[in-house]
Specification:
Layout: H1 9-34, H2 58-62, H3 65-76, H4 88-110, H5 114-139, H6 142-168, H7 175-194, H8 202-220, H9 222-228, H10 235-256, H11 262-266
Helix pairs in contact: 1-6, 1-7, 3-4, 3-10, 4-5, 5-6, 5-7, 6-7, 8-10
């Protein structure tokens, strides 16, 4: 369905809502089979607890400046990015979500807890939605990217809120959040591999993928990197820096890309 040849805005709207429905159906099946997935409390056990002045856990708090700077840079590029009317809502959402992610993450790391983690994940889910919409616009069709923004955003935000409410009730359930986060990541990678672009500059997106892999590794190796560097930097410190690089690559792509010739953009792999 994701790689179908869409024919009009009404069909594209329907396809977008159907895909969001597939995500909800997958969540329902996983929930039925495995039950709720609560947030593991060890998640909040970060290696870097250094304090700088009045700022607690300063390494994890202040490295969010990399994300903030990338978001502000994206905002400054407003008149320089190559976006159509279909792309612009996703671009605007990416700018706002990136800036809010920096503040949400800093707020969470100031005093890590499940309650504060909600405000970290909400803008991150919107940022991921905007990235998926922009890639869909480039690799499927601009109207489809526009139509996907609302249903995918609702599912992404709904996943975070569902987890927050169920966690507060003592039966935390991360499943919908993970379905959307992992599903969107897989969808972006699949589109980059299997669909030809409508714009140049795909190297920026592959650089973003590389930085995303790096940030995931650093997040998993928080304590190991802390020990390896002798307490100079933790994995989560580096994760924030790589996150800023991912966002900068996204805006760099939007700034540098140019429409490809119609014949190239219309080309499809055999069997698609």
């Amino acid at each position: 369905m994701l790689f179908a040849k869409f024919r009009g805005p009404v069909t594209e709207r329907q396809q977008a809502w159907e895909l969001a429905g597939v995500a909800l159906l997958l969540y329902a099946i996983l929930r039925l089979v495995f039950g709720p997935l609560p947030q593991w409390l060890s998640y909040h056990d970060f290696a870097d607890t250094r304090q700088l002045g009045f700022v607690p856990r300063a390494g994890d708090v202040l490295t969010n400046l990399a994300i903030l700077i990338s978001g502000l840079w994206g905002a400054l590029l407003y008149r320089q990015v190559t976006v159509t009317g279909d792309d612009r809502p996703a671009y605007r959402l990416a700018v706002v979500a990136a800036i809010l992610t920096a503040f949400g993450s800093a707020y969470y790391h100031w005093d890590p807890s499940n309650e504060r983690l909600v405000w970290d994940r909400l803008p991150m889910s919107l940022l991921l939605t905007s990235v998926l919409a922009l890639v869909l616009a480039d690799r499927v069709s601009p109207p489809f990217g526009r139509e996907a923004l609302l249903p995918f955003g609702l599912v992404a935000v709904g996943g975070v809120l569902l987890w927050g409410f169920t966690e507060a009730a003592g039966r935390g359930d991360l499943l919908l959040y993970l379905v959307m986060r992992i599903g969107a990541t897989v969808a972006v990678l699949t589109l980059l591999i299997l669909r030809p672009p409508r714009h140049s500059g795909s190297g920026w997106l592959w650089a973003a993928v590389a930085f995303d892999v790096a940030e995931t590794i650093c997040e998993r190796l928080d304590w190991q990197i802390w020990d390896l560097t002798g307490g100079i930097a933790s994995g989560h410190n580096l994760k924030h820096l790589f996150s800023g690089a991912v966002i900068a690559c996204l805006f760099g792509w939007l700034r540098q890309r140019r429409p490809l010739p119609a014949a190239t953009a219309a080309r499809r792999p055999s069997g698609s």
